[in-house]
């Protein structure tokens, strides 16, 4: 059985999924797992296609000090115990910089180019590249594909792509990239099946998870995003503040004496729902809390989604549909109801019963704009991109063999 491995590596975890190729372009998820607690409490967990547990093992901290070590252990488990020898590997890479507008086959030159974007995403890019390098070293013949969170947004116009700062910085790469692109691409590809009449229209997609952003889609293409240069901008998130006056950062430097790395940690780990509530970064816990600060954090989250929806509707010059996705968007009827309330001025009404059931269409029959819940699947998107490049390279090789 031919398989594709999908890898999503972060600072403290390596997530992986294996898909079997079941004929022309058809993929089926065989297993998923993750090695988490890297450098603290390493643990390998995996389950099969029906959720059946396949592994749950703890490792000593010194045995899994970093991402390459985690990749080695997960890879050995896949090879030796699951007998999986993937014919290609797809990687999530957060930053493709200004030029990569689609997935790309990886070689040493591509890795060198992607290393240049470490400065643009210092908390993600090095960890994304670590398993790529280790597979390149151990299995140089294996096809590897980089799928970027930024690529889907490279269709933005110049006004959407710029900040009002001197051009030299733009030329260096200080641009409004936008992220969560694999999720938005999956939704854009799925919408024609969910709602064929509006898929070609103006749609706002709200990816509401631990990280959260919104994207304006016009005929399935991204025209605007709430995120910009980094994944800090836009909506408040689990631990990130979202849009914030840069003057606050200047205050932290001048009045609090905070260094760049302290501020980086603060903005990525201590703000957002966690900072505002003082209770948790997890929406389930906030919803279950009686603490007034937890209620404020929930209010703030819904309010900012409403504000940003207004901005994106202006970018689209109208709105034909609104879509919720990701952990909170797919599971929290309460947040969806709150957001629908914020969108009432656009003519949105909610069908409470369908919202509580997490149905696909949750707006009322009288709603001027239909509201959908569409589960996202970034890993499947990566697997599909990897398969497409695999088929392309296979047919190129076959052509070359015939010609020689
Ligand atoms: P993600 O990053 O997409 O996995 O989403 C994680 C976020 O989704 C966390 O804030 C979770 O608390 C939230 N979430 C997951 N399930 C639920 C639920 N049933 N109700 C509310 N929030 C949820």
UniProtKB/TrEMBL annotation:
- The protein's name is Acetate kinase
Q: How is the cofactor bound?
A: Mg(2+). Can also accept Mn(2+).
EC assignment: 2.7.2.1
Say yes or no: keyword Secreted present.
no
**Which organism encodes this protein?**
Bradyrhizobium canariense
Subunit note: Homodimer.
Q: Which family would the database say this protein is a member of?
A: Belongs to the acetokinase family.
| Chief location of this protein within or outside the cell | cytoplasm
Q: Which GO terms describe its cellular component?
A: cytosol
Catalysed reaction per UniProt? acetate + ATP = acetyl phosphate + ADP
